[in-house]
Amino acid sequence: xxxxxxxxxRLTEEGWKERYYREKFLVRGESELKEFCKxxxxxxxxxLEWVLQYYYNGCQSWxxxxxxxxxxxxSDL
Length: 77
What we know:
There is one protein chain. The chain has helices at residues 16-25, 30-57. The chain is mainly α. The longest helix is centred in the middle third of the chain and has 28 residues, at 30-57. The termini are far apart. The model has no long low-confidence stretch (mean pLDDT 92).
């Protein structure tokens, strides 16, 4: 038997962004959330830059990787 899926983030309800980061990245507290958003934003933008460099100039680094499993919200970029 399959367990029922629970929507823990509830995108249509107030506080959805905090719940997303809490559930997906285990971020706790307001100060940790602020620092985390800064870090994930930086890594995501570096990833966009890496992709552009790859397609226009060839691979710049085979060692770079995006360190998170999920992307930030576009509103956080």
